[in-house]
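Batch manifest, entry 17 of 40.
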Amino acid sequence: MTPTEHECPTGEHAVVAVITTHSDIIARAIEKLEALRDTAAPGEWHAWRMFVPLEGPRFGVQAELEQSWGYEIETVATSERAENAELIATLHRTIEPQLAVLRTQVGVVQVDGFALAIARAVLGVTA
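Output type: structure tokens
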């Protein structure tokens, strides 16, 4: 792949960097997952049913934050559908296994197709 030109709203042209190798895709996926993990609420995430005043029942995702005095709960997402909350909590639990798979491919000449598919999904790259 080569860099491509895109027209900016100002009418100027800008060169957009393109990920060029499978190793780049793996590295950028690791960086993204680590950044998301490190900046999101720490702790275990769980889906649960909650009641929002004036809105009624909702489904949420809570993070259990361990403190020196016990646990603090942070709501990280809400939805009208239980399946959405469960999906978010489930995907959060897969971050470390995904990173483990991706890290096995760092420095590898022939990148594993499964790891590459994970990396592309993390980055939103379809091709």
